[in-house]
Structures are given as C-alpha cells and as structure tokens.
Amino acid sequence: MWTNGMRFVFVALTATAAACYGQEGPLPPAGSQPVAQNPAPPLGTTPSPVPPVPPPVVVSAVTPPSGPTPPAPPGATSLGCFKDQGDPTGTNGRDLNGFTENVPGMTAEMCTQTCTSKGFPYAGTQYGTQCFCGTSYGNAGKADNCDMKCGGAGNEICGGTWANSVYQLKPSGPPPAQPVLPFPG
Fold first, then answer.
1. DSSP character at residue 141
2. Which of 75, 132, 136, 156 is most buried, judging by how many CB atoms fall within 10 Å of its CB?
3. Torsion from C-alpha of 106, 112, 114, 115, nearest 10 degrees
4. What is the model's pTM?
5. Is residue 89 assigned to a domain?
6. pLDDT tens, 149-185?
7. pLDDT digits (tens, 9 = 90+) for 34-57
8. Looking at the structure, do residues 129 and 86 belong to the same domain, yes or no?
C-alpha cells in the first residue's frame, strides 16, 4: 500500500512478534490508524537484517503413568486395575460376570455395597458409572487405564474403558456360628 510516497506493509503481529520487529509497548487497539514505526526500505536497497524469531514452544500431551491403587471404600480391599472383555450390554464373558448395573451417580462405595448385598466376593467399577459383581476376577490380566472419575464422586476413580477397579469384599451379615460345646457336667 502506498500513501504520500511511503510504502506501508500491514502485518498482523502478536505481542511477541511485535517486540521482535521493534514495536514497543502494547499493540494498538483494533481499528486504530497504523503508525509507520519501521517502514520498508526503498526498492533496490538491502533491507536491514530481521532479528531472529525464537523457536516455537512445543507442548505435548503426556499420559501420566497409572497411579497407586485408589483407596478402598469401607468393607473392601482395593486389588487394582484389571482388563475386561465380553458382552458390551450384559455379563456374558465379562471378567466380573455375576451382576451389573449402570448408575450415573456411581461411586466405589455404592458398587461395593451392591455386590456385598448380593453375596459376591468381588466388585468392580468401570467407565465411571458401571458396577460389576462376580466370584472371580483377573481372567483378562492387569490393566493400566483405570483413569475415569466416578459419576457420583469426582475425587474417586471408577475404572476406565474396558477396565475394572476391582475390590475384594468383606462378607456382610453376622459372623459364622461357633460350634456349641456340650456343658461338662
């Protein structure tokens, strides 16, 4: 663009780039008239060297390694993270295959209480909202992707995609009856 014999080049600059090209202070507000602070050299002359542009900052997403086993709710012992497989809508072929439910407000304690009340020795939360109960676990091996927050408790982990946070349950109900010994006499 030529105005009154001067050549202006309009370039959108970030604050960092503006500092590199001699702009001091904040950039002018949008829509303001341009000011020739560093006009282009006349044609046929050698332009002054451009200061080097700093290298770009590279940001990458890194998945943190799986942390320690989450604390267990009361009445349960946390066993770790285990792979799941099988029927996506039921328990057929699942690692914990006795009972399942999907509750938007799921917590580890809710799941362990459900499985305990149904008489199962193991419970597992999966995908933030699912609960599985069973008599065995670990058939598909350990997993490292138990990283989803519980639907009902954002500070708890409730498994992951095709991964159960598994708990061993303490039996509920009265303790087993002690044998009655005959009274000596």
1. -
2. 132
3. 130
4. 0.57
5. yes
6. 999 999 999 999 999 999 999 876 555 555 555 656 5
7. 555 555 556 666 655 656 655 554
8. yes
